[in-house]
Amino acid sequence: MSLLCETPSLSRRAMLMTGGALFAWAFLPRFARADNRDPRLIVIVLRGALDGLSTVGPVGDPDYAGLHGDIALSLSGANPALPLDGFFAVNPAMPVFARLFKSGQAAVVHAAATGYRDRSHFDGQDVLESGLPGPGNAATGWLNRALANLPAGDRITKAGGLAVGPSTPLVIRGAAPVLGWAPQALPTPGDALAERVLDLYNHRDPVLAAALQKGLDADRMAMGDQLDGKAMKPKGGLDNAAGMRQSAQGAARLMAADDGPRIAALAFDGWDTHVNEGGATGRLANLLGGLDGAFEEFEQGLGARWKDTAVVAITEFGRTARINGTVGTDHGTGTVVLLAGGAIKGGRVIADWPGLKPAQLYEQRDLAPTSDVRAVLKGLLADQFGLSAAVLGDKVFPESATVKPMRDLVV
Amino acid sequence: MAAPVSNPVPPDKALVALNRFGLGARPGDELGKVAADPRGYLKAELKQQDIALIPPDDPRNAGLLDSTAAIQASMAAAMERKTARDEKAAAAMQPTAAADPAGPAETKPKPSVPRVEADIYRDEAQARFDKALAATPGFVERLVGFWSNHFCVSAAKAPVVRASAGAFEREAIRPFVLGRFADMLLAVEHHPTMLFYLDNQQSIGPDSRAGKRRGRGLNENLAREILELHTLGVGSGYVQADVTSFAGMLTGWTMAGREGRLGEPGTFVFNANTHQPGGAMLLGKAYPGAGMGQAEAALNDIARHPATAQHIATKLARHFIADDPPPQSVARLASVFTKSDGDLRAMALALIDMPEAWSTPLAKLRSPFDYVVALRRAIGPSAGNEPQRSLRWLAVSGEPLWQPPGPNGFPDRADAWASAEGMKTRLDIAWQAARQADDIGNPNDMLASLIGTSVSAETSQAISRAESKQQGLALLLMAPEFQRR
């Protein structure tokens, strides 16, 4: 059975959470607005800390190649990066993003970070998704609070949010109603988790290591003759390209409906590239290919709605500017925010570039943050949905009044 | 099979109590308190009134049927299914009703016959999971699982077993897990579900009235499994003549049928018409012909046989201590069994007091049921559709609930579960559970509250370096400290 032919169906959990709101949509009047704009916002959380310098490489910075070593992007060689402007180039695994950028429908905010400066994934993700000034006590997410602060009766509020995946990402958890949808498949973990468990077993429990290795090998052999991503056994793990594409496709189909949700959150895993990260090809490039596929699925699946859509991909922090001893990168600070969609005023890399000389790096190791991720998100929420700076600085991102919304991100 | 490389010896006392004996820690359990008096912690559970029973006053269990009602419901459903099949077959023989304007009502499709047995089975599974999830620390539920596997029936045998497997456990196992072995044995072999599962309703004494009339004879299945699996153990000295003779004694032990000729349908009845008359020998002892009392007397004797003591002691030590248990631990349990007249509470206490239980490395692997329960205890309620999700996990792990491959039950050795497919499946389960858990705390904190200070540096590091809470939780659920017991 091909999942590509499958119509997304909402999970039982979704129905419980919304009290049957999905069915209620059918009785609402068709939406219409004077300016004919019908904005949508899709938030993709990249868990594990994305290496911004390998996603959008500052190929014009003289210190970049030296720091990022063998995995640095380059405009020459077998797999040249795709130039965005005279200074930055995007990983060649992302041709869709490059095309959107050229047509003014994608942008990059570089050297960005949340307000969180330690390097714990769990805490960093809490801060990123909760929108709170620090970690701890995170029960609701900023996207849900944004939804809750829209005027009651607004068509965006009525349609509720959409959470893609078997669990609801923190970013969209909260009081406002949220529908859940997940590809109908037993989630199979991607290679990232399997490798970590194997590594642990190799150190602690060789008997279990041998058994698990055999089981994984058998699984791979069974799938070996179906390497084409579309034909592959569906994977719900979302730390692999096929799963990312598949979940975006389902979400786009639900959001394209006139009465479908306008706001959605997805979480993709696997970005914690400590070992053998790869550059233009390899592990990170495979994941970026999945993210690029998700952009493509949204562009195609949203059809006429794409022009009013903003997709934003965010991560908890970046990675070290200098590669480590295992041809990967460790937890860092500044990274990229990727924006795509017909609503995005694109074709721009927005960066107050801090430079990569030792003294310019944050704590002599990370890309120094010069933009606040919250400013980007606030700008999107303000321009797409009309939320005021006061609400954004108090309710949506508490205690962030000093972080001004980044304006003019939207057409 | 080889033990994990660097298992701490002696193992952490809290983990012995919670994992070797219990069903695993929950985030609220205080490992420090458990470690301070682990034996007292385990014994406290044994002291609770009716601790092994599914509480009937709990409204969640109000809908559970006793075995008689469950079997009758299954019998009725079987009749409905048969009627529906017959009507369908008859309809297929008729010319199409659509051509007949007078009879359009007959062309309506019949509503499909409900799967009564599957519904009952699901409710029973739910009750078993509820009990296991709430137990502190679950040593008694582990004993229930042990005895239920020792005296197993299989839902795959027939719908009537699927419908009554849960009731069988509640009626014949649970009341006796802290009682007398002989009482459990008698309850099990009298139970209609067991008699049906091991074909005893088909066994007819050749010299009985029914046997002479119908020219039919013995089915040795139940007699053989009682001797080989339930009591003495294979190779303990009984011979084929004992099996044949014992099968004769057991003739007439059956389940009353749907028509109710012998008694209330679905209940145990002794059918004198099929009972092999006269005295019989078993293990060199003569049992005079006395109807149902003859086999009861034999069961009471073999329940107290030294081979039975050795068999039960070995299995309990294998389950709770090690695949190849220290011989002195088996000897001590066998001695307690004999001296206490098969008092299973005394056996449970002997296990708790056994030094080997606290000194042997935690090298066994949790069975799939214990793994799924431990996992659900660790994460708490989640979005999964229960009990279907857990039942599916058990099925793909090779331990479908109340459905072992044969009357010898599921295996109880680590290498049976640490298979390639088995471990890959556990990885899938851990990942699914972690992804469906909505509110995951900090995995480092979960590690501290579930495994505690004896955790290996590698496990601790792997979890703290996880790239997401979901991955950290999955790693915790896959860690050797979580898999081994």
TrEMBL record, chain A:
Q: Where are the transmembrane segments?
A: none
Q: What is this protein called?
A: DUF1501 domain-containing protein
